Amino acid sequence: MRVVVVARGAYKPRGGAERAAWNFYRHVGKHVETLVITDQDTSGNQLPRTGISQVPIGYLSNLVWFSTKLGRITRKVKPDLIQIHSYTGFIALPQIQAPTVVTFHDEPATPPWDNVSVGLAPLLTASLHRSEQFFRKLLLRKKPWVHAVSSTVKAQFEALGVSSERIAVIPSGFHSAEVHPPSMTREELLKELGIPESAVLVTSLGSISFRKGAHRILSAAMKMRTNDSDVHFVLVGSTRLILERAYVTSLNKIITSNRLHNIHLLGQVSSNLLHNIMCHTNLFISASLSEACNQALMEAASYGIPIICTDVGSARDLFRSEATILDRNVSSETLARVISESLALDKKSYTCTKEWTWSRVTDEIIAFYERILSEH
Predict the structure, then answer these.
(1) Would you tell me which CATH number, out of the four given (3.40.50.300, 3.40.50.2000, 3.40.50.2300, 3.10.180.10), belongs to the domain 186-355?
(2) Residue 345: is its pLDDT beyond 80?
(3) CA-derived radius of gyration, the chain
(4) Which residues on adjacent β-strands are paired with residue 267?
(5) Residue 236, exposed/middle/buried by CB under 10 A (0-12, 13-18, 19+)?
(6) Residue from 249, 197, 251 nearest 222 by CA
(7) Which listed site, 85, 150, 258, 340, has its alpha carbon 20 to 30 Å from 39?
């Protein structure tokens, strides 16, 4: 089987999308011949090289040129199937004979305002989501097969008229490797971060952006300030994009004006420091407005950290009752209360880390490919 994968360049080194892609290509690539076509220079990340060809191309700068380039590649390669990891790429897909499967993540409608002042981020995010919903409806005219990362996404597409037989719900897989012991003691880590030794650590991992809900964590922390002064919130993630930097600037203004000494926006950190933070974290929180298959949650589960998350992406499919799953529009008051109630929870072993291995995910993806080809 020969598969062409078209991926929009969101694979920031050490980012969640890059980690998911690395595992997808590494595992699926062992069983099928794979050609990856991406618009991003992948030399700075950890995508595997063996058995995979990467063709950096100008992606959104010129969709017509992209479509022509993609058409030439696919005519030369003659793939049995095309896998699209960004539906904007599907819009530019030329008319070819090979069946196409598109991977979708959760993109709910987002209101253009919020209870925390974060500049233009809410409005821009709401506009982006509306455009994405428009693209979804447009591409459905081409009748693709749908790889949904969660049952929520499947329900969204069934509501748009896609037959359930054309949809497969397959989340990402968990790493099977054991977590290594920390290289720093808790005292050494807290000193490194400038946090008091008595602190309880609540960590969030992911790009520090409006979509990831960092402002909601900050708002909850403000509600908790009086009763839980020893609770310190550590937010780790990329702040390299222009919108991310503007968003962080707005958050820092709120932190400074409210004298919030227990909020730490670390940005992107080294792998070693991140490992030590995760080893010594008391509680993990994800307040995202939308997600795909949240790699940060999966990594927190691998460390056995108690998890609070919003009901987006594949959270409910993977964790069921093993994590505290809140409504995606949870209020700051509710989030603060749940955090306070969860601080005494012990670390645990999650069932999903053993159920959803990459071996199982790979088997299900290839079985989906085979079913598509048998019906094409």
Answers:
(1) 3.40.50.2000
(2) yes
(3) 21
(4) 236
(5) buried
(6) 251
(7) 150
